[in-house]
Fold each of these.
Amino acid sequence: MTEGSVLQISVSKGGVPKLPLAEALVTPLGIDGDLHRHPEIHGGLRKALLWITSEGIEELTAAGLPLYAGALGENLTTRGIDRRIWRAGQRWRIGETVIELTKMREPCSQIMIYGQNIGLAVYDQNVKAGDPASPRWGLSGFYAAVVQPGSIRVGDRVELLKQALDQAV
């Protein structure tokens, strides 16, 4: 699935959870007003946004984790996109904004408030090795750089613009 929509846009003053906004301005450093408790780890030009799918959150809640949109610190929660097709180098249009996926997010200690085993639930050695066949692929979210800043709103269309050089859907 290469098209979907924005379910939630989320920001915080640092840490998790991030709280919802109806719309936001996306700059080269991410969503205007979003802060990071550990800027040496999160944020910056290559990790300006964190994207997670609502379907992935639903998988994790079905497994007993107390999650919801924004809980894992993501800026964008979408519906209708298959997280298993995500690859570094893909470009996606979200509203007026264009982003490029840069790297899978490695879970940090901040999300352990949702359970001691959450890191294992969203990330494994296969994900770390770059294997999209892992059932955990994309559950921890994917970081993105902002290629074209602009506004985004809840309900905006999300569409794949450019496939990664080494992969076709």
Amino acid sequence: MADDNNPIIDLSGKNNTKDNNILSLEDELLGSKPSSANNSIGTTGTTKPQITKNKFNIPQAVKDKYPELIPLILQTESMNDEEREYWFQILPIMTTDQVNKFRKILVTEKQQLSKLDQDYEKELSKINEKHLQEWQSFESKEARDKIAKEEEVAEKEESSEEEDLLKKLQNL
């Protein structure tokens, strides 16, 4: 029996929908856990397409010889599911040079997308910082305005009290 911390890894490539604690090799390589909601693999915070577990017929030769390529193929944004399936099927008959070039393409794409994501996050942080400063400035201005109004009201009350005291003194 597996628990959430130590799931059983299914290397057979067969779908196993009975036990949510059994992960496919792709899931293990991607570092995902079963989700009771939709049993799909995806990224959080973005609108990247989600890859369904065990969706592809990955030959055992690919699992044995190129396990590092499986997550790269599953995660690439430049392929649709048909293309992913094609690459899984064609990998066993590709030459070493072709596989190396394919790997380089996938890794380069992943690195470039990661760099774009980092640049986007930096720009978003700058924008958020700017808005935070504007918001803090706005709150400070509101607080100053509120204090000024309270002081104005207090001065009017004090002035009114002074006038009342002067009138009382004059009436004595």
Amino acid sequence: MTEEVKACMEKQKAQMEAALQYLEKELGRIRAGKASPQMLEGIRVDYYGNMTPLDQVGAINTPDARQIVVQPWEKKMLPVIEKAILAANLGFTPQNNGEVIRITLPPLSEDRRKEMMKKCRAEGENAKVVIRNTRRDANEEIKKLGKDKVLPEDAAKQAEKDIQDQTDKYVAKVDAILAEKEKDIMTV
């Protein structure tokens, strides 16, 4: 395998790995019946005129499997945080008791579980699209090397086969991650 092909394969692998990490991060935000601080990731609050991530204006804890507690560093941030959580439209209502914000997660209904699975599958499909696009880019790079006579034809064919094998491996990883999340969501 030439240096050009190795570089192409390494670049492809790094991009596919990034797609997997992004998928896992996005699936972490989708709740599966148990509370997680990741569910509030991405929520931004107005902190003195700056949109700041929620975890930078308060502590986020999960005292039990059905509850998330947000304790702001400053008490005057309570209504702002409450408003931001409501605006995020995550499917639960925060309760402000003057000290902390409590979010009690309702048990998931069958319809809600199915809706969440659709969301998970959509995220999985997005990851697969990124992986396939990476494969296409790598194949184009290999074909260019073949046209420029840098790479012999049989080496180009072998490189394309290796790229396809790597793509199949990553698509299988996406399917495994989705299967695990589906099992997690559907467990009552």
Amino acid sequence: MNKKNIEQILKLKNVKPTAMRMLVLEYFQTTTSAISLRQIEFHFDHSDMSTLYRTLKTFVEHNILHTIDDGSGTIKYAKCIEGCICAPEDLHYHFHCLNCKKTICLTKQNIPSVNLPENFTMSEANMVVKGHCSDCQS
């Protein structure tokens, strides 16, 4: 994906396209699994960590990235699918490989709606399927 496309994505989400934001989004465009903060820090090892963290926070607030609690004790980040507003109807399953520890979004199937008691409001839900990915099966 070229810089023009990345800049356009940020502008569509009302995020100012700074150099760091463009680099971080470009990095996420190349990944197929969710990424921990430690992995991101390692990739951008010469960057200011507070700027990096603020970038991730901004991306989550503007529905560019979403966070995943896969049960590993580390929050991970993944790209939101196009049109996602991170509302309950956008929530999808995640798969966490017990061997290689990768977590991937399973965006073709949303988490089913839950009938909550009266005056209860759902703000988030997390569904993680654990097992072994195709790479670790062989």
